[in-house]
Amino acid sequence: MEPNSQPNSTQDWPTRAWNLLCKLRDQSPLVQCITNFVSMDLMANTLLSAGASPAMIHSIEEIPDFTPHARSLCINVGTFSLNRLPAMKAAAELATKFGKPWVLDPVAAGASGFRLNACLELVGMKPTVIRGNGSEIIALSKASLGASKGVDSSHESIDAIEAAKSLAQASGAIVAVSGAVDIITDGNRVVGAHNGVPMMQKITATGCAVTALIAAFVAVDPLHALEATASALSIFGIAGELGMKMAKGPASLRMHLIDSLYGLDQSALLSHTKITSL
């Protein structure tokens, strides 16, 4: 299959995902991450193990010089404060100006009015992809506060399909909802990535890490952001499945997940990828 062809069956998805991972490893795109203090380590190690080059550049003073040279941008509002918003907005503006894809992770978007309004401002700056859990996507779609458990979701991803489609149509972004089945939509098409293990939820920042991986994948195929996003979610889940075979708990799963992502080969990817139309 040609690298930029459109998947038209479930059999095409594994090949598409493998082609994208090969491009990522070959090109090693520079991914700028403006993220939270909790997730930096796992995000950077996820990008490195997949083959990308991470840069945790947060300072607004550096953004004019640095952001135009990144292949993609990841913005994560986890440990958010008012003084961080200008840097996020400046980087998003530059990424858009220079035609670079950028990905938004609206962590706990519905937890407070301050956080929700900031996330809505960023959504208005035209991210390429928005990746969140069910509660975050519902909060953004309805532009309203909602029940949450901190950064965890009170909703299953399946519950957020209609909210994700509405948000995608309103924002122009690909919207991904993480959960037992990861949902990816452009507002019309809806696909599900069925990889991963429940224990990944017991490791802090796995959601943040997969958002960074999505940013790396859209860097190497920005014209097919839905396919890149679904592939990244599936591959991260596969790394979790393979890592779980060696893990004794969340701490060892974290280590083995990173190792499995680094060592993922064609045979394992082609046999484990589970992406379907919904």
Automatic annotation (TrEMBL):
Names of the cofactor(s): Mg(2+)
SUPFAM superfamilies tied to this protein: Ribokinase-like
Keywords noted in UniProt: ATP-binding, Kinase, Magnesium, Metal-binding, Nucleotide-binding, Thiamine biosynthesis, Transferase
Enzyme class, UniProt record, top EC level: transferase
Record-level GO BP terms: thiamine diphosphate biosynthetic process; thiamine salvage
Pathway as given in its UniProt record: Cofactor biosynthesis; thiamine diphosphate biosynthesis; 4-methyl-5-(2-phosphoethyl)-thiazole from 5-(2-hydroxyethyl)-4-methylthiazole: step 1/1
InterPro entries membership: Hyethyz_kinase, Ribokinase-like
Keyword Ubl conjugation: no
Pfam families: HK
Catalytic reactions on record: 5-(2-hydroxyethyl)-4-methylthiazole + ATP = 4-methyl-5-(2-phosphooxyethyl)-thiazole + ADP + H(+)
UniProt GO MF annotations: ATP binding; hydroxyethylthiazole kinase activity; magnesium ion binding
Highest taxon, organism lineage: Eukaryota
EC number: 2.7.1.50
Family according to the record: Belongs to the Thz kinase family.
Function: Thiazole kinase involved in thiamine salvage pathway.
Protein's name in the database: Hydroxyethylthiazole kinase
Species whose genome carries this gene: Manihot esculenta
